[in-house]
Structures are given as C-alpha cells and as structure tokens.
Amino acid sequence: MKHVAAPNLEAQLFGLSTLVQLVKRARHAATVQELGFVMVNETHGLVPYRQAVLWQREGNGRGKVAALSGIPSVERNAPFTLWLNRVMSHLDQNDPAEIRLVDASSLPGATGQEWSEWLPAYGLWVPLATSSGRIGALLLAREQPWNETERPLIQEIADGYAHAWAGFRGRRRLSLAARVPGARTAIKIAAALVLFALLWLPVTLTALAPAEVVPFHPALVRAPVDGVVDHFAVQPNAEVKEGQLVLELDARTIQNKLDVASKALAVAEAEYRQAAQQAVFDDKSRTQLAVLRGRMEERRADVTYAQSLLGRIHVTASRGGIALFNDPNDWIGKPVTTGEKLLEIADPNQAELEIWLPVSDAINFEPGTKVEFFLNVSPDAPLQATLRQASYEATLSSSNVLGYRLKATLTQSEHVPRIGLRGTAKVYGDRVTLFYFLARRPLAAVRQFLGL
C-alpha cells in the first residue's frame, strides 16, 4: 500500500504546485497576449495535450480565435483559423457552461468531417466564466482519452484564467441609453435632426488657387528694332536708374545696311554731279537732273534711317526700379522683333498678387472680395489682399492649367513680399449653406457624368 500511495501523493503535490505556478503566471501577465500565451502553451505542464485553442467571446453569438498553441500570433485568414472559428462558434452556442468532451460528432456536417484533418481525436471544452458571465473558452485536444481525475485541476486553472482575463476586459457598465427603454432610438433621431439642421448653416464659399507676387504696373522694355540680343548690361533683379543702359542688340546687321546705303548714296551723288556738269551744254542731261536729285535724296534717307537704327540698339531703362528678366544666357543670340517684350522694370515696394483659379474650382466673386495669401516660405503668416480684377474667360497658365487670371491688391503696405515669391491664395466667395459647400464638387461631377 505504501509503495502505491507514495507515487500518487507525489503526483498530486506536483499537480497542485504546477496549478499554483500557472495561476501566479496568469495573474502577473502584463498584457492580454502574454496571458493568452500562458493559457495555450504553459497549461501543458498541468495536463498533457497536443493542441490548445483560446476562444474570445465578443457578444451577440460572435467571437474569434485569440491564441493558438505553438505559434506567436494568429493568422486571421488562414484555413485552420477559419475552420476553428466555425468550430468554436458552434461549441460556444451549444455550451452548457461546464467542462465536457467534444469530438468530430459534436459538430455538424462538413465541419465535423474535417476534425481529423486539423485536431486529434479527443477534445475537451473548457469554458472560462466569471460572475458577470462567460468570456471565452479553451479547447484542448490530444490523442488519448481524457479521464475524470484531470477535471478538478482543469476546472481550477480555468477559474484562475477567467479571473485574470476579466481583469483586462474590465466590467462593462450600462450606458443611460441602455438603461432607459427607447432612449437609443431617441438619441439616434435627435442626432439625425441636429445633423440635418447643421447642413443648412450659412458658411462662406472659398476656393484655393496657386498665386505669385508680381509687380504692380511695371514698365515694359521692348525691342526697339528687329535684331539679335548681343549682351545685357545689368543682371536679373538688379537695381537700375532711369536712362541707364540695360542691354544692347547686335550692330552688325544694321551696320551692314548702313554701309550699303552709304555706298549707294555716294554713287547717287556722283551721278548727280556728273549730270549737273553736262547739263550746261546738254539739254538731255538737264532733264535728268530732277530724277537724279530724287534718287540721291532717297539714298540719303536710307543712310539717315540706318544711322537712327544703329543708335537705337542701345536699350535704356525708361524708369528706375529693379530689372526683372530671366537668365541673360537665355536671351543672348536670340532674334527679336520690334515691340517684343525683353524685360520689366518694377518698383519693389509696389506689388500685387496674380492668381490662377482653375476652372474646376471657379466660384462667384466680385471685385473687392477678400483674399488670403499663404506664402510657401512662411505659411503660418497669411497676407491680406482684396480682389482687383478677374479675367472674363479662362486661359492657359504657364503651367498649362486652364483657369481664370485674377489680380489682387495687397492691403498691407509694410513688409511687401519680394516679387517672384509663390504660394496659395484663398479666395472668398458668396455665403452658401453647409450642404452646398460640402456637395458642390460631387454634384458637379455627377452632373458632368450624367450630362445634365
């Protein structure tokens, strides 16, 4: 008798010690994931099994597989996980809230037929419940049948696991809407009415568009004659004075014309002098004098015109300011025609905004409308401006965007931004309802799609 009782007593003491250690490990788990790992993996030290599944109830007959033995995380879309969700959901709905044996016969149809493909033959359903209700379950499966001597230990460890798990889940308190009959429906109706009323609140319609600081009424420097740009006497953004040389055109073409005209004039003068000498004795030569004099005057006019063109190749500034143009290397050697714009001269203290409003964002606006300009270099300090003019029809911008060209005057005379800076302009329009403000673009897209 003593030789038989001693091993049984030792096994019972080992089981109780393992039970205490597992409960302690469950109570000291830092996260739900750590607790789930203890449930499905370390429970094997108390009762042997090959596979363990932790099922988490979520209410309304739903739930999910929270942990599996032997793997660090659950793959939600894996075939094994999807099959386990069906198994655990069926067992949970038919659970009598007590430990019971389960196998393939406990499941309906094809779900039960697949048992042998995924789990060993003998399963044990272990509910996890507290005083507030059942929160989940453990499914333990192995090749050997379960015996009654293991049930007390499994029941105790299940109570310890449930208590530790409930500490993470917390107690759910009923809200006022759940306590008062019909309150949930009333709250939904009230929220819908409030939302419907908010849609009719008046708001200001706005549109965002790219903008640039441009000079206000700059002086344009144009090509005085047809020619080729030879060189620039100033650099871009350099300060110039009235009458200062800014660029020169190539003089070779005009100089060649002047040389030809001068030689033609010399020939015409020689012919006239010869005819004048012969006219004293020859009546025929006397009749040719008027024709030769007219030809000589024509050649002299050609010389005078060529000389005037040669004097105009030196282009000067018509006013003081800063010279606005691109890289001089882009102009040198480029042919220009009379009247072609070469550069601008602007006052750095007088600037305005040039806004390109895309056609898709066009709204109704009038001169004097408020405009806010957010510089890219300082977006936290918007500049105030008022709309001065707007183009009648849409045109292509330098970036090939079809839109309306707007001009806005900066209202702040101090700290005028540097000409050429870019940013985003916010143009204010009419007062509309919040519904129209939110649905303007979707309605326009639907109208274009349906052709209405």
Question: What kind of sheet is the major sheet?
Answer: 6 strands, antiparallel, barrel
Provide the CATH architecture of the largest domain.
Answer: 2-Layer Sandwich
State the total count of DSSP E strands.
20
CATH class of the largest domain, anyone?
A: Alpha Beta
* Poorly predicted residue ranges: 1-6, 171-178
Number of domains: 3
Query: Strand share of the residues?
Result: 25-35%
Instruction: Please give the radius of gyration in angstroms.
Output: 48 Å
Shape, principal axes of CA atoms: elongated
CATH topology of the largest domain: Beta-Lactamase
Helix content bin: 25-40%
| Mean of pLDDT | 83
How far the N terminus sits from the C terminus, by CA atoms, comes to 99 Å
CATH level-four homologous superfamily name of the largest domain: GAF domain
Backbone structural class: alpha+beta
Strand ordering within the main sheet = 6-15-19-17-16-20
